Known about the structure:
The chain is of the alpha/beta class. It folds into two domains: 2-197, Rossmann fold, CATH 3.40.50; 203-296, no CATH class. It has helices spanning 2-29, 36-47, 62-77, 94-100, 124-134, 156-168, 187-191, 208-221, 229-239, 244-259, 267-281, 286-296, and strands at 54-58, 109-110, 142-146, 173-179, 194-197.
Amino acid sequence: MELAIIVIKSYVLIGYALSVVSLLIMAELIDIKEHKFVTEFFNQSLTKDHLARSYLLTGRDLGSKHQLVKQMNMVLNCSANKDLVLRAACGTCQSCRWIELATHPRTPIYLRPDAESKTHVIKVDQIRELQGELSQSSEFFRIVIIEDASSAVLNPNSSAALLKTIEEAREGTLFMLFAESRSSVLSTIVSRSQVLALNNNSDKEFTEAARELSDELREFFGSNNASSRLAQLMKAEEISSRENKDLVGALQILQNDFSNSADLAQADLVLQYEKAISSLKSSVRPQLVLAELFLLS
Length: 297
């Protein structure tokens, strides 16, 4: 009887230890300090093997986008990660050293506008060349980076070719698209990509009126009236007459709050605020934008 109890306790302790180790491994895979939400999102996606085919990273923080892709590239190609459990990149194997020095022969693959093109667009022929490269088998996990996925660079024809490439790419291929905002990207690309915001706006970039309005909205969302549809509509009407730049700034401040949280439950809110900001910048009536946003918040 005592032996059975000891065995059971041993299994419990082993299970607990494995859980702790698993959590530690997950927490150390990716670490972008300025973006806790994105860090947690990709840690869980990597650990659970739930990576999408394509991600659209919005916002002006280009440095963090490149750092994120670099860390993911190292984790996915590290020689230490040949078993079923992903670990943090070792940093010392040949693949890690190549990626650190930006000399890896197979990854990442950059898709940029033709240097000789006067229109500064990515041509269909370039994407066909990419298709040919990706059709070849590789021992490495390949990440394709498009540093400007806006409609000015990816026109309807090249976007259609890119979507076909994403759909037909071999397993072990990931597309990372960058843009300042989702509204600058063709809807066909947005609809096929997981959108994540990496904002790095300083408080100094916002007007005093925007900061005051963000405080006012925080107070409203924290009140008992926040769940009342009538109160939401009244609040939307009340603040819709403010300067558009202050409305956009206030929503960006609140979006930053969500983006800097490690709580994945905030994911939908980050995207909803991104849509609202894009709509306001596109001159959609503020009252309509705010009324819809308040309902979702």
